[in-house]
């Protein structure tokens, strides 16, 4: 009579991983990190006490991370081997670099939120600085100016940038004109913002005369900075669309322009939207070109083609650079304007993610 071997019980609890099993337990890296930071804190405290100086937070972190990298590499090499040890070392270096990159971002966010909340009230969002000296006033004129100028710059830049990218990918592949356009776009990407502002001011000064200041001139200056970013990001997204989709459309007799409109653009719309929002975030905080072209004012102005127009970056600069009495009121308005500008960029990015998710091609069956 044949006997059937019993299958191993796979539902049993996993075996405990020890140092002798050729693999480090999950808690070991965290324990080594805590130990390294503790030893580094003790050493930094002793050195600062002996030298009579303050405790160095940066020195403590640097010594702790370096000690951790040495310990995790040595221990992993003994237990797991050279390949796994090198992998853990690189992982530690990359994680440390990420933490270093996050430090200034978190620091700026905390500083802006802490100082900006002092004037983050209803008056700040419902009034301008017309007739205000000292305390009070708001930034409604600057917020509206920023939104109007950025909207006008987007209306100018987005169609030009996307259509340029379509030509480079779909029509100009390998042509001399396409190579020239690509070179010029790369050059425009590195143009300083003040140069774009001077260009827009010179253009409008030739048409309307010297001393002209208007919101539309600021929009033109920002569009010069936006167009190359939109072109490069859209170009990369269009390049990622598989050629099989284009060929399938052509095989059905669909003309090229309709293939681009109905197949290529919908497929890459998520990436294009992200690139557009990056371009908007790139220019919405520019100060120098807007200071030259749009100027600054304390009153409301909804007309892009008539008179000076205030924007949030220029508002922040003017409040901080030209402080009156009391100086704290001007500084508080500057920090509140900075917080408002960050929140506007955050809202725009969230809206871009929502649009990208809604219009992204559906891959489910």
UniProtKB/TrEMBL annotation:
Keywords assigned by UniProt, alphabetized: Cell membrane, Membrane, Phosphate transport, Transmembrane, Transmembrane helix, Transport
- What CDD domains does the record tag this protein with? TM_PBP2
Q: Which PROSITE patterns match?
A: ABC_TM1
Q: How does it sit in the membrane?
A: Multi-pass membrane protein
Q: Name one Pfam family in it.
A: BPD_transp_1
Give the matching Gene3D superfamilies.
MetI-like
UniProt cross-references to NCBIfam families, sorted A to Z? 3a0107s02c
Its name, as the record gives it, is Phosphate transport system permease protein PstA
Organism name: Microbacterium fluvii
Taxonomic lineage from the root: Bacteria, Bacillati, Actinomycetota, Actinomycetes, Micrococcales
